Amino acid sequence: MKRLIFLLTLIFIAVYGLYFYNFQNGLSEKQDVWGQFGDFVGGTLNPILSFITIYILYRTIVLQQESLEKTSAALTLSQNTYELSRTELSKSSEILVTQNKLIQLQKFEGAFFELTKLTIEAINTSSYTFEKREYKGSSGLDGLIYDLFKKIENQKNTSWIEEFFDDNENFFSLLKLTSGIFSFVNKSSLSPEEKNSYLSLLTSILPSGSITAICFVKIFTDWPLSSHFVDSGFFDLPGVSETFEACSVLEKYKTT
Predict the structure, then answer these.
(1) Keywords in UniProt for this one (predicted)?
(2) CA distance 187 to 185
């Protein structure tokens, strides 16, 4: 802008200087001379001023266009940055959700395997008495369940079962510990498929005698905690369903 003002000043000086240089008669008192002077100045400066005005208008339009382009580019960049930020936030959120799931799963597995370990240890150290015979550990539990079913088959009734349970309170304690694992899995936030996977794993880990004992209690007693096994779908698991079906053959001898 300063350069433009300087240029206009030079033009005015040049025009007036040119006039007075050629006509050195001083300031005239004649009206027609002043008219001629005005025509000279107007004829000389008007085209120049018009050109400068057009040039200024052109430059203004160009500057506005450049400004709009820069503004548009800045808005585009801002929008891209915003979209990138949203994408990064979304990814961060997904990562946090995944990490949280992994942490929860690790906590679940830690508790699951600890409970399973305690249950197996309890089975291996347990002892029972039946018909004046003592049964110990996992293998003893297998023999006990076999003898229980054999007596039901021979006597064709279960009126004596209550007496057996009274003499072997640890039998239900052991099953209560086992049912706790199933209850823990049932109440977890795992998906149905994941729950079924862990229950299948648990079934494969537990001694076979404990599986048969659970079936025995479900068929011949009204033990409330059997619901934990039922709700988990335990009796529908591969291997368990066949055992339960085989045990159910003697259900007809259940004494009500």
Answers:
(1) Membrane, Transmembrane, Transmembrane helix
(2) 6
**Which tokens in the block code for residue 239?**
């291997």
How far apart CA 75 and CA 45 sit, in angstroms, is: 44
The 8-class DSSP code of residue 233 comes to: T
214 domain-assigned: yes
- As given in the structure block, the two tokens for residue 78 are 């801002």
Which helix (H) or strand (E) element contains residue 199?
helix 192-205
**Which residue, 179, 182, 206, is CA-closest to 195?**
182
Expressed as residue numbers, the domain containing 20 is 1-83
What is the number of structural domains in the chain? 2
What Rg value do the Cα atoms of the chain yield, rounded?
Answer: 50
> In which residue are the tokens 């079913």 written?
149
Same domain, 130 and 73: no
Q: Residues in the chain with pLDDT < 70?
A: 1-8, 10-12, 14-42, 45
pTM of structure = 0.62
What is the C-alpha to C-alpha distance for residues 178 and 203, in angstroms, rounded to an integer?
Answer: 11
Decide: 235 and 244 in contact? Cβ < 8 Å.
yes
Kindly state whether residue 64 falls inside one of the protein's structural domains.
yes
d(CA 113, CA 105): 12
Find the distance separating the first CA and the last CA of the chain, reported in whole Å.
Answer: 110
Q: Are residues 234 and 161 in the same domain?
A: yes
Rounded distance between C-alpha atoms, residue 256 and residue 254, angstroms: 6
> Which tens digits make up the pLDDT trace of 155-197?
999 999 989 988 898 888 888 999 999 999 999 989 999 999 9
